[in-house]
Amino acid sequence: MVTKNNEQKNQKMSRLTVIAILLCYCGVADAYGSLRCKGKIIESGAAKATVLALCGAPDLHVTSPVPVRARSGWGASRFIGISTEEQWVYDRGFGRFPAVLSFFDGRIQQVEYLPVRSSKSERQ
What we know:
alpha+beta; 6 strands
């Protein structure tokens, strides 16, 4: 009798563990690579104009030159020019990770979150 109760408890615990792991995984998968502004989700591929319209001006804007290379038929690469990559940082408020949007050719290439929480007050 005691063994049957322990077996049932173990099965229940293992089911709860699997459910908890799946819920955590789904939450992370949905949050990565996107940003929510004014109730809309902004993902990779969105244009700068769309981001400005929905999220407003970024708190920090960094532009850096990036070398552009092309690969030849023999596997070597050669320098063909310079492009610019932009990074916009949005401080999303107290207790939330700042979002970094990387733009290349006027479109979002990547959405990341900084590992430091914002220190902005909720009242601002």
